[in-house]
Specification:
Elements lengths: L1 E3 L18 H8 L3 E5 L2 E4 L1 H20 L3 E2 L5 E3 L1 H5 L2 H4 L5 E4 L5 E4 L4 H11 L8 E10 L14 E11 L2 H21 L4 E5 L10 E7 L5 E5 L5 E3 L20 E4 L6 H10 L1 H5 L12 E9 L7 E8 L6 H8 L3 E4 L2 H6 L10 H6 L3 E4 L8 E5 L5 E7 L8 E2 L19 E15 L1 H6 L2 E3 L5 E3 L1 E8 H11 L1 E2 L2 E2 L10 E5 L4 H16 L4 E4 L5 H11 L3 E5 L7 E6 L5 E5 H12 L3
Parallel strand pairs: 1-29, 4-8, 16-18, 18-21, 28-29, 28-30
Antiparallel strand pairs: 2-3, 5-7, 6-7, 8-9, 9-25, 10-11, 11-22, 12-13, 12-22, 14-20, 15-16, 15-17, 19-20, 22-25, 23-24, 26-27, 30-31, 31-32
The structure holds adenosine-5'-triphosphate (ATP) and magnesium ion.
The site of magnesium ion has 3 residues, from β22.
Catalytic activity: tRNA(Pro) + L-proline + ATP = L-prolyl-tRNA(Pro) + AMP + diphosphate
Subunit structure: Homodimer.
Family: Belongs to the class-II aminoacyl-tRNA synthetase family. ProS type 1 subfamily.
Length: about 600
């Protein structure tokens, strides 16, 4: 295939777009791959569309290879199936809703669990029909709160979504593993650096779910990893609990007057200076980690109106991480208490809340796993200016359970013992999820079993951000001059620059382009009437992995072959250049 820059629908830009922050956004716009229409809504121009279609094809091949069947559902959907699962309300402002001429409610699909479930329910009835895996590569719509970074987070974007339908849990586990392995192959083929992270800790009985994160400093997702290969979302990190200790013989708890100590810092300073504590034979150094901080929140179950108080106890040297707390309490909603909540519950003494008042007033109290039986703490005594010292878990108070709500810090041990954690950033490129029977329950998807009894179907859902991948690859593979496409997705195999105005040079470039085209290479030929400087700059910007310069060297029978990534230039004899390039681009 031969593409001439002289007629290609392409205008490169010298300036970064004003709204662009991340490199992929700047470069894809400047190199003429995409154009913005509205926030989070982009048009694909010829070179961009080629890359997009190539990625789409890689995804399609790997899905077909695991036996998933491609179908295509509409993006414009009636609300009823989404009402059946509650997502019409749950999605809130994140979906685009519209009305037809008769006033009927519709939405633009953000993801299609409901529709696939409904479809399978309509077509299949017997256990003999299962298992089945279906997928589509389709435009999705989400009214993202912060459409940013160009096509990285669009409001209209291309996703591959697949769904597996099985009769038994083992079947689901197998479908899940097939998808996971297919995703590994897809992202390897695309040359991405990525990690697979556990998406949820499963502490609340959540089903298996993993996310594929492309490693990128511009990513919105934070994850942690260890030298030994552990990787997880911060929400999914579990805290190794110290073994329970015998409470026998530990010093008795004592309440102390600790004036003006509503914060952990003021408390620790006071404890270390207080003579009365030393008099009690407690001569020791206290740190924030010896204190137990009790944070009060309120939670609300989905579909309910009333809020319930919940106490969270974490070591005083750590904050409560709201995202971890939300993930741990999901699907319940969480909010911090406001002044009126404190006014309503006078037993909550701000700055001095302790486990005693919570227990006495029936407030559920969950603690960090470090608050194991036999550990001793300094904590609030439920009275202004008072704290208890040596309050022992399992002896002086009994929490209702543990919760992963404390912040995770770099240097914390990985839960699998594989070393200290470090924080990194990533972009979600894929998600594999064992849904279980949630959707089948909501929509009544059963198969008639061999004994004539209905069997509830269990499902998985699996997504890949196809359009996002274009930007993610650009994010991982570029330099100051422009894009650098891996061969597997590049919009062309070679980019020929005709660098000179003479008839010989023009004819030489044309001839080489024709020969490479005939040899099966995809050629981008810069035959424009522009200066070599402009052409070189555009070639760097566009990012085809091999650039061939046909210029003055032609007189001595050579052309220059430049590797876009390394910048290395080699002079190659005209007679051998076609086979050299075939070799280089893997097209022979
Ligand atoms: P994110 O956390 O980035 O918002 P998500 O968890 O909402 O993503 P899923 O519902 O799991 O996304 O969708 C499957 C895949 O679709 C994601 O892994 C991601 O690659 C892609 N994707 C999701 N939202 C967008 C978007 N707004 N623009 C482009 N791609 C997206
Ligand atoms: Mg996701």
């Amino acid at each position: 295939m031969l593409t001439r820059m002289s007629s290609l629908f392409l205008r490169t830009l010298r300036e970064d777009p004003a709204d662009a922050e991340v490199p992929s956004h700047k470069l894809l716009v400047r190199a003429g791959y995409v154009r913005r229409v509205a926030p989070g809504i982009y048009s694909w121009l010829p070179l961009g569309l080629r890359v997009l279609r190539t990625i789409e094809q890689v995804v399609r091949e790997e899905m077909d290879a695991i036996g998933a069947q491609e179908i295509h559902l509409p993006a414009l959907l009636p609300k009823e199936p989404y009402e059946a699962t509650g997502r019409w309300t749950e999605y809130g402002p994140n979906i685009f809703r519209l009305k037809d001429r008769k006033g009927g409610d519709y939405l633009l699909g953000p993801t299609h669990e409901e529709l696939f479930t409904q479809l399978v329910k309509g077509e299949y009835s017997s256990y003999k029909d299962y298992p089945v895996m279906l997928y589509q590569i389709q435009t999705k719509y989400r009214d993202e709160a912060r459409p940013r970074a160009g096509i990285l987070r669009g409001r209209e974007f291309l996703m591959k979504d697949s769904y597996s339908f099985d009769l038994a849990d083992e079947g689901l586990a197998k479908s899940y593993q097939l998808h996971r392995a297919a995703y590994v192959r897809i992202f390897e083929r695309l040359g991405l650096e990525y990690v697979i992270v556990k998406a949820t800790s499963g502490a609340m009985g959540g089903s298996a779910s993993e996310e594929f994160l492309a490693v990128a400093p511009t990513g919105e997702d934070t994850f942690v990893r260890s030298p030994g290969g552990y990787a997880a979302n911060v929400e999914a990190v579990t805290t190794p609990a110290p073994p329970a200790r015998d409470v026998e013989g530990l010093p008795a708890a004592q309440a102390h007057y600790t004036p003006d100590t509503p914060t952990i810092e003021t408390l620790v300073a006071f404890l270390n200076n207080d003579a009365s504590l030393n008099r009690s034979g407690l001569r020791r150094t206290f740190t924030a980690a010896d204190t137990l901080k009790n944070v009060l929140v309120k939670t609300r179950q989905p579909g309910k109106t009333e809020w319930t108080l919940l106490g969270i106890g974490v070591p005083g040297d750590r904050e409560v991480d709201m995202k971890r707390l939300e993930a741990a309490l999901d699907p319940a909603e969480v909010a911090l208490l406001d002044e009126s909540d404190f006014a309503k519950h006078p037993f909550l003494v701000k700055g001095y809340i302790g486990p005693a008042a919570l227990a006495a007033n029936g407030v559920r109290y969950l603690v960090d796993p470090r608050v194991a039986t036999g550990t001793a703490w300094v904590t609030g005594a439920d009275k202004v200016d008072h704290h208890v010292v040596d309050l022992v878990a399992g002896r002086d108070f009994t929490p209702d359970g543990t919760i992963e709500a404390a912040e995770v810090r770099e240097g914390d041990p990985a839960p699998d013992g594989s070393g200290p954690l470090e924080a990194a950033r990533g972009i979600e490129i894929g998600h594999v999820f064992q849904l279980g029977r949630k959707y089948a329950d909501a929509m009544g998807l059963d198969a008639l079993g061999p004994d004539g009894k209905p069997v509830r179907v269990t499902m998985g859902s699996y997504g890949v951000g196809v359009s996002r991948l274009v930007a993610v690859i650009a994010e991982q593979s570029h330099d100051d001059s422009g894009l650098i496409w891996p061969r597997a997705v590049a919009p062309a195999d070679v980019h020929i620059v005709i660098a000179g105005k003479t008839d010989e040079i023009t004819a030489g470039g044309e001839q080489l382009a024709a020969e490479l085209d005939a040899a099966g290479l995809r050629v981008l030929l810069d035959d424009r009437k522009a200066s070599p400087g402009v052409k070189f700059a555009d070639a760097e910007l566009i990012g085809v992995p091999t650039i061939v310069v046909v210029g003055r060297g032609l007189a001595t029978g050579v052309v220059e072959v430049k590797d876009r990534r390394s910048g290395e230039r080699t002079e190659i004899l005209l007679e051998t250049v076609v086979s050299h390039l075939q070799e280089l681009t893997g097209t022979r």
